[in-house]
Design goal:
InterPro entries (chain A): DUF1501
Order of helices and strands of chain A: HHEEHEEHEHHEEHHHHEHEEEEHH
Largest interface: A-B, 45 and 50 residues
InterPro entries (chain B): DUF1800
Pfam families (chain A): DUF1501
Largest sheet of chain A: 9 strands, mixed
Shape of chain B: globular
Strand content of chain B: under 5%
Distance between the termini of chain A: 33 Å
Number of strands of chain A: 12
Oligomer: heterodimer
Order of helices and strands of chain B: HHHHHHHHHHEEEEHHHHHEHHHHEHHH
Number of domains of chain A: 1
CATH superfamily of chain A: Alkaline Phosphatase, subunit A
Strand content of chain A: 5-15%
Shape of chain A: globular
Number of helices of chain B: 22
Structural class of chain B: mainly alpha
CATH class of chain A: Alpha Beta
Structural class of chain A: alpha/beta
CATH architecture of chain A: 3-Layer(aba) Sandwich
Largest sheet of chain B: 2 strands, antiparallel
Radius of gyration of chain B: 24 Å
Protein name (chain A): DUF1501 domain-containing protein
Protein name (chain B): DUF1800 domain-containing protein
Strand order of the largest sheet of chain B: 1-2
């Protein structure tokens, strides 16, 4: 049964009265509203993914000479152009690329790069400069400035990352809507939720606790009730990452009023014996994304979706003594979507002949330009308010 | 002059100086004067009880190991850090010296280091523990020269001609002056040169490698000379701003998330004049009148460690497996020895989001009642309660598998009427909502009533 028909037969046929009273005012989107309701899915590859072995400068002599063990041979890769090729674990991404649904931005980074995982992750998540410590994430600030409900940004994962933490409002972290829902279903918590009114207005910590509790309580019901509308029958790879993406697809197709989704895949810190580890992880990534896109397409939601994939840093150009690579700097970023304005390779390839003192790539695109583009051009909100600065927008969307 | 504190104020002191007070302890100290009580707190924390983990098994040279042995070695290293984690929790739950534990917690987060190397992490932790109530300057010097810090902030790579600024930056920004206070980028660059040559050897002992040290003249914070690393630390301690920054951070940790500039100024001046004596700073706070003001009581969000240890001390919690405790820590985003980054846990509201709050609210019921809060106030059929209480662990309780001991708590209570229980277990004033729910509760079972109190948002505050 198609989603639309299902909705007509069930919820809408019987009227809105099915929605519990405390959910009033935050109903899910009707099928008519749903089309054109844009969303962005952010995927973080944690640990520092080696971009040079993901999207490979295959004809570059320097690449082959400084990576005698790690460099991929041409026949092991999937051709993009004469000079560029996908790691062959990225087959599903390659086929999206061939349909004009992928945009590759090279050399993305920021000034004075930090090679610490934690610090660089913070920088990417808070959209700060490398000399700036922010306690709110860029999506958290998006929520603060533009949203009414915490569930408008959802992390499908175990905990909420800094990205989704705002000053006024945090996004919702949920790996299993059912479990989150169950943990709020104590009669005791219901009594509190039903009775609590005034505390929500208080600015102090007690008010904050009540507010978070009510937000969680009502969001959990909302997310749970709404996501029941659609359960995908598309097959996803049986990995934790695949499951998380499946959860995101269910949310999007069910018509959850959320515009930002977040998830991550870890393990990319390949100091030692990189090849097998990275290829395996890239496969998990690509197969998951392949299934997600297929699912969204089937339900006519891919045209409203943009998927951003990033890692906190790339890796050193030269391989190290343990068949791995050390922490680097600038990296490529993938944008996947059904409505890209610019497809293919967005900008110049990394210049392996012009490295910084540590032997790392120099950035040419500030990652915050990509954020600004997503906020301003795609979600159509004021990017300057969120990023506290004017960053030049790109034209991939 | 005998000024004694009310029960509520004593509880306040014990929450901020430790992890709450048990009914038994409260009975003992109720009649103490304020001064005697504070002396008592310091006396109990006099002894330094270092964590001890047998690391003999790690005395190998990793370079001589085969690939598989290396893998095994890394696994062992991980296990040992986790063992340290378990031991520290046990110590916090059992010890009399709560103030030392609390300040060790503070400084371990102030000097935030995350390494999977138990050999140097244990030494690092015990160094902090030793100085936690002593002299901040001595702690700073010893911590800066510890292998853990040298490794974590890349001072091994800091050499004459190719300086690494990581430590020089953080020692100013995070450990002494505070971000954007007094120092410039040039100060960082110059200070980095002074720290060149600081390293440690294969036995994990500090060594000064003279040939890597930049002996040239440096200018840092307006002072010029042939400085080495120790000189820079001394220069940083000479700055009143260091005392201001540390005092404010301790104030936020012990007193209130919102700092009171007037109180902090007075405290910081005395702290500086005492040459950074941590005990005298804490005495100034605890002896003050304002520390016991209503606006400072019950307003801080308990850290996960406060929450877990508070329940642990009250109800003598036991965990079926250490894993259960790791699970809670991960779920609540505070895994000891695994801080998020060099800046440590920010604390305050950072602890609470949709994924953590419901677990925090359920923790009391998980430990004491298999995860059942059981207050369906419309249902007053005793049979139903019986069934719920007898039921097996469900949901989260199945994952966490922790058990509390009512006998550690109930027999020591003087009164079990509702008002006394609320006063003892809940530090802030009850919200209107909570008052309503408590009043409506027909529950006359003390245990169930206590579980309800532990499940209120108010219990998350101290």
């Amino acid at each position: 049964m198609k989603r639309r028909d299902f909705l007509k037969q069930s919820v809408f046929a019987s009227g809105i009265t099915l929605v519990p009273s405390f959910l009033k005012g935050m109903e899910f989107l009707t099928p008519e509203q749903l089309s054109g309701y844009r969303n962005v899915i952010i995927i973080q590859l944690s640990g520092g993914n080696d971009g040079l072995n993901s999207i490979i400068p295959i004809s570059n002599d320097i690449y082959h000479s400084v990576r005698p063990v790690l460099a991929k041979k041409k026949e092991e890769t999937l051709k993009i152009t004469d000079d560029l090729a996908f790691n062959d674990s990225l087959k599903p991404i390659k086929s999206l690329y061939d349909k004009g649904e992928v945009c590759i931005v090279n050399n993305v980074g920021y000034p004075n790069p930090n090679r610490s995982h934690f610090r660089s992750t913070d920088i990417w998540q808070t959209a700060s400069g490398s000399d700036q410590y922010l306690t709110t994430g860029w999506i958290g600030r998006y929520l603060d400035a533009n949203c009414q409900n915490p569930y408008e940004a959802i992390e499908v994962d175990k905990a909420l990352s800094l990205t989704l933490k705002g000053k006024k409002m945090n996004g919702i972290a949920v790996s299993n809507p059912n479990l989150l829902y169950q943990s709020t279903r104590e009669p005791f918590f219901k009594d509190i939720a039903v009775n609590a009114q005034k505390e929500m207005l208080d600015e102090d910590n007690q008010g904050y606790l009540y507010k978070t509790m009510l937000e969680t309580y009502s969001s959990a019901s909302y997310i749970y009730e709404t996501s029941k509308i659609y359960t995908t029958n598309t097959e996803y790879p049986n990995t934790a990452f695949g499951n998380n993406l499946k959860g995101i697809a269910n949310f999007i197709i069910s018509g959850l009023k959320s515009r930002v989704f977040y998830s991550s895949l870890g393990g990319f810190d390949s100091h030692v014996n990189q090849m097998n580890t990275q290829d395996r992880l890239l496969k998990i990534y690509a197969e998951g994304i392949g299934a997600l896109v297929e699912d969204l397409k089937k339900n006519n939601r891919f045209k409203d979706t943009l998927i951003l994939t990033f890692s906190e840093f790339g890796r050193r150009v030269k391989q190290n003594a343990s068949r791995g690579t050390d922490h680097g700097t600038a990296n490529n970023v993938l944008l996947i979507g059904g409505s890209l304005k610019k497809q293919g390779v967005y900008n110049e390839l990394p210049n392996l002949a012009d490295l910084d003192k540590s032997g790392d790539l120099k950035y040419t695109v500030d990652f915050r330009s990509i954020y600004a583009t997503i906020l301003g051009n795609w979600l159509q909100v004021n990017d300057k308010t969120v990023l506290n600065n004017n960053f030049k927008k790109l034209d991939f969307i | 002059m005998v000024a004694s504190l009310t029960d509520k104020q004593i509880q306040h002191l014990y929450w901020r100086a430790g992890f709450g007070i048990t009914p038994k302890e409260l009975k003992k100290v109720q009649s103490y004067s304020k001064k005697k009580l504070i002396d008592h707190l310091f006396e109990q924390s006099n002894a330094v009880k270092p964590l001890y983990v047998d690391l003999g098994i790690l005395k190998k040279n990793p370079e001589q190991l085969t690939k598989d042995e290396k893998k095994e070695f890394r696994k062992l290293q991980n296990q040992k850090v986790l063992e340290m984690n378990t031991l520290w929790f046990q110590q916090m739950q059992k010890t009399e010296g709560i103030l030392r534990e609390k300040m060790t917690l503070f400084f371990q987060n102030h000097f935030s280091v995350r390494l999977r190397m138990p050999q140097i992490m244990l030494h690092f932790h015990n160094t902090i523990r030793k100085h936690a109530l002593g002299n901040f300057g001595e702690m700073l010097m010893e911590v800066s020269k510890s292998p853990a810090m040298i490794r974590y902030l890349n001072n091994r790579q800091n050499r004459k001609g190719s300086p690494n600024e990581n430590f020089a930056r953080e020692v100013m920004e995070l450990f002494t002056l505070g971000r954007d206070n007094k120092y410039t980028e040039t100060d960082i660059k110059e200070a980095a040169r002074a720290f060149t040559g600081w390293d440690f050897d294969k036995q994990f002992e500090f060594v000064f490698r003279k040939n890597r040290h930049d002996t040239g003249v440096k200018t840092v914070l307006g002072k010029t000379g042939n400085f080495n690393g120790e000189d820079i630390i001394t220069i940083l301690l000479k700055e009143q701003q260091t005392a201001n920054y540390i005092t404010e951070k301790i104030y936020r940790f012990i007193v209130n998330d919102s700092p009171d500039p007037k109180n902090i100024k007075t405290l910081a001046k005395a702290f500086y004049e005492s040459n950074y004596d941590i005990e005298s700073l804490l005495r100034d706070i605890f002896m003050s009148k304002w520390f016991y003001d209503q606006k400072n009581i019950g307003v801080k969000i308990k850290s996960p460690v406060d929450l877990i240890t508070g329940l642990g001390r009250q109800f003598n919690t036991t965990y079926e497996k250490p894993k259960a405790l790791f699970f809670i820590q991960r779920k609540l985003n505070q895994m000891l020895f695994y801080p998020p980054n060099v800046a440590g846990w920010p604390g305050g509201r950072y602890w609470v989001d949709s994924s953590t709050l419901m677990i925090r609210l359920k923790l009391g019921s998980i430990i004491l009642n298999n995860g059942v809060i059981d207050i369906d106030i419309k249902d007053d059929m005793p049979e139903n309660r019986m069934i719920q209480k007898k039921s097996k662990k469900t949901g989260l309780a199945k994952r966490i598998r922790a058990t509390g001991d009512w006998n550690a708590f109930l027999p020591h209570l003087n009164n079990t009427n509702k008002k006394d229980l609320v006063d003892f277990l809940i530090q802030p004033q009850l919200s209107e909502t909570a008052q309503k729910i408590i009043a409506a509760s027909k529950n006359d079972n003390t245990q169930e009533f206590i579980v309800e109190l532990l499940s209120l948002p108010e219990y998350q505050l101290c």
